[in-house]
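Hey L., structure's done. Input below.
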Amino acid sequence: MKLSLPPKSTTLAILFLLLTKFVTAGTYYSNSAAPNSTANWWTNTNGTGSHPSNFTTSGDLFILQSGQTCATNGTLTIGTGVTLQIDGTLAINGNNDAVTINGTVIFTNASTTQVTMAGAGSGNTFTVASGATLKTINTNGISGSNCSIIAQAIKKTVSLSTTGNYELNGSGIQSTLGLPSSVTNFNVNNSNGVTINSSFTISGTLTLTNGILVIPTGMTVTITSGNAVGGSGFSSTKHINTQVNTGTGAQGFLRVGSISTAYLFPVGNGTYYMPVTLTPSITNDFSVNVFQGATTDGTPNGTAYSAAVKQTIVDAQWTINRNSGTGSTTMLLGWPSSLEGSSFVSYQDNEIGITHFGGSWDSPIGSGNHAAKIVSRGGISSFSPFGIGQVNIALPIKFGNIKLSQKNSGLEVEWISLNETNVDHYEIERSTNGQQFVHVSEIRAMGNSTSALSYSWMDNAPFNGASFYRIKAVDLDGKSTYSSILKITLGSFKKDISIYPNPVTGSHLAIEAGNIGSGEYQFAIYDLGGKQVFSQSFNHWGGVFSEAIQLPASINHGVYNIKLSGKDISLTKRVLIQ
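Output:
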């Protein structure tokens, strides 16, 4: 059989494609001559071999050798995908000479300037163009005294694109001196860390390949894109150190915009890793700082907590500010075991919560995982300092009857203390949502007693509508105990009752009744078979009231009917006891 061959032109085209497919990128070395000429670059380090055909073939690597000073006598442009590695010195000396990097430039000297300029003619220029990449190991910085590039001066222009990419990958602590105020991507790859010299903005991605990025006080690193911080395995040796000044209270911040889903701020203090994850309901912009040393007002220069209080908390605080956006946010905080107080170490998961400072610290709430050293809290809409402490659960041995009663335009808060021992004072706290409470008043304790002691306080400016109250008993050693939470609704003219919480998860519930007359009333609980399992009588002065009820220990989980009966009324509500 005779084979049919393709036309000659087709054969040549196929051969050309095969040859170009297998062309490999070249590595070329300087020989102390003008680097802007391809004739002065060789495939061998001793100035032998072949030359490159241009400075634009993607994948090519040009190495300006150590110990050599190569002075330009014209313009040099490094193309996209091409790398210029400077081990020696690039001297931009000729009249109006300029060097432009469209690909990558790498500086390999840790302490001396590797790009110099003579300022000849109208001047010289070194440019890192948009989309290009600069990498350096110089500890002093990118551009300035003893930095990789000479400091900008008259007729000596250093143009570093605000849409370029920058990587600090040295072995000694590095500075960002000379870094532009905006960059596309920024990479930290230095086990000894990088300290920023001034605030800057990242429109792309911040990556922690290795080491710690230090943000000094008064400075901010801003990620406008909302891109996650790159890198993995964040830890005590790999995180973002947001520094503070305990004298002035100044702080450094990591700020991230365009956050619409769960976002990890891998922050710490250079010694401990203390991350924050924020999940907003809608797009938000947040700034985060964390520092060791909990204070009474959540500021770095505030009054430190006493040793007794620090036994019950994590000795760190987080400043989390919302710069723009609305809605609620779920917060997740992490901490190291080294900062746990001696009492905190034994807390169970359901005893760990997040506390927020808004003029005073509210009670820690949330859901903890002590083994994983994390705790979360949802429904957050107010920001500023946060901390981690013990969720205070109502303890009936401390508190007896607790009651809220409308008195004219005010609201009277009454409670009974049982077996009062070493109590210093009581704090009355109020809330509009039953989660974030604020301190509104306090009363000194009467002193140790084995008998019941009665207390009362009048709120002369209560909220109209629904509000929540609780009592905090603070012991002489700083420990605290909370009462049950009572809910009351002022301004309601409907004769009705409500139960809080429902479902009931603890040993207490609060019954609220609106717009009923004065007189004696009975509160009773019936199972679905109609059997009464609990009853309690009390007197009411008229109007709205709320009272805490301690459930009998013998009551089983299930659905019950709760009935309030008295002067011309009989009101029923169904409740689930879990």
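The first strand starts at residue 27 and ends at 30. Residues 198 and 477 are 45 Å apart (CA to CA).

-- N.
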